[in-house]
Amino acid sequence: MQKQKNHSSAPNITPKEYGELAKKASPPSPSFKTIPLAFLFGGSICCLGEALANLYLAMGFPEPDARGLVSITLIGTSALLTALGFYDDIAKLAGAGTLVPITGFANSVVSPALEFKSEGFIAGLGGKMFVIAGPVLVYGINAAAVYGLVLWIFG
Predict the structure, then answer these.
(1) Distance between CA atoms of 57 and 38, rounded to whole angstroms?
(2) Sign of the dihedral defined by the CA atoms of residues 110, 113, 118, 120, in that order
(3) Secondary structure (DSSP) of 12-66
């Protein structure tokens, strides 16, 4: 019988050595810069939403319709900026500030879809559109159902 060789290409290192390697590979985040930028960009997106709501109200839309139009505008703008390649540049500067739920969610749906568009509309674009956003949708829908059930039971 022949001896089996270990074909693993990973070196045998201790957890401590791995921790040191990971520390070297991950430079510290300049929090003094990133936190204020995230706050400013995230706040600017929210202020834009309020400005759009006021604009739509001034145009004569009822409040529920105006709020819906704000969502549509922010989602559409985020998707367009992602498709044109600008959203990533903004996110590099703004960091977590671009994760304001509605714009960040739109970006997380459009990005994978664009990445796989060469595979066709169904297998590529349609199949990969919810790779990142899918788990969020599943969790959100199930959480809403459980919450609604609890409210219905306990009134």
Answers:
(1) 28
(2) negative
(3) ---HHHHHHHHHHHSPPP-HHHHHHHHHHHHHHHHHHHHHHHHHHHHTT--HHHH
Whole-model pTM over 0.90: no
pLDDT digits (tens, 9 = 90+) for 55-88: 999 999 999 999 999 999 999 999 899 889 899 8
Q: What residue type is 104 in one-letter code?
A: G
Length of the chain: 155
Separation CA 142–CA 135 (nearest Å): 11
**Tens-digit pLDDT profile for residues 31-46:** 888 889 999 999 999 9
Show me where the domains of the chain are located: 33-154
DSSP letter assigned to residue 95: G
Q: Which residue has the tokens 């739109």?
A: 106
